[in-house]
Structures are given as structure tokens and as C-alpha cells.
Amino acid sequence: MNGWIWAGTVALAVGVGAAVWGVATGPLRRRVVAQNLSSALATPGLLLLSQGYERPAYVDLALLLALLGPVGTLVFARLLADDLAADPPHARAVTLVVAGYGAVVVLVLCAVTGPGRALVKLLVIGALLIGGNLVASRALSGGFTESRRG
């Protein structure tokens, strides 16, 4: 077991384990935030495992998860908008920490990968991961007030 596999396993176990606990317990606002963060924590874990096992297919899975995870959160935010309006979630600090963690993992893997198509794919995954997580968290915490005016 090399360091990449160890780091990926720890990331998946700790991050996704905490997210599963958050989804299974607590009020609705904590459950939707945990659902959003589960994909944001699983994607860097898959990227680390991809590097450790030298399997590019895991990068494709991480790309799919980075794309569809925030979309699922936006669907939940839309369907649960009335319930969340009374008690909106506030997870700005957690969201920024998870986004920073994703950015660090992507940047480290970019430095290790070197120039080429794999680097471009990693940068796309990083942009989708960070941007999607921030947009989905913003939608959960009450949405964008500018879009409600007109």
C-alpha cells in the first residue's frame, strides 16, 4: 500500500463516513448539507486512489461524480425549498474547508501528473468540484437573491 492509496482510503472513510452519519441523523438542514458534501469528499478520494492504483478509469468516475453531485444537490434544494426556507442550512465554513481540500488534492495531482491530457482533465474536475460545491451550498442556504427579483 503506497501513500496515495492510504490517503485516498482515509479520505473516503473519514469524509464519506461523516457525510453518511450526517445524512442518517439530525434535522433536514444538516442532512442536505451532508449530502452535498459527500460528493465533494468522495471525488478527491477517487482521484487519490486513481493515482495510487494507476487506473485512469477512476479519474473518469471522479469526473462524473464532480459533475452529477452538485446537480443532485440542486435538485434536492429545489424540491425541499419550502421546508428549507423556514430553517436554512448555514455551512459556509465547512463548505470552504471541503472546497479547499478538493483544491489541494487536485493541485498536488496536477503537479505529479505533468503536462498533457490528464492535467487538463484534472483541472476540469477541480473546477467542477469547487464551483459546483460552492453553487450548490449557496442554493441550499437560501439561493441567490438576485434571481428572485425578476
What percentage of the residues does DSSP assign to strands (E)?
under 5%
In DSSP terms, counting alpha (H) and pi (I) runs of 4 or more, how many helices? 7
Unreliable stretches (pLDDT < 50, length at least 5) are 146-150
Elements, N to C (H/E): HHHHHHH
The whole-angstrom Rg is 16 Å
Termini gap: 55 Å
Number of structural units classed as domains: 1
Main structural class: mainly alpha
Look at the structure and give the mean pLDDT: 86
Largest pleated sheet: none
Helical residue percent?
Answer: over 70%
Overall geometry comes to elongated
Number of strands: 0
Topology, element by element:
Layout: H1 3-24, H2 28-53, H3 56-79, H4 81-86, H5 92-113, H6 117-140, H7 145-149
